[in-house]
Amino acid sequence: MNRETVVTEALDLLDEVGLDTVSTRRLAKRLGVEQPSLYWYFGTKKDLLAAMAEVAMAPHAEAPLPEPGDDWRAWFLDNMRSFRRTLLMRRDGARLHAGSTPTADLDRIHRKMDFLIASGVPEQHARTAMLAAGRFTVGSVLEEQAEARYGDSAEPPAGVPVIDHESAFEAGLALIVDGLAQYVDTRPRPLP
Question: One matching Pfam family, short form (predicted)?
Answer without folding.
Answer: TetR_C_1
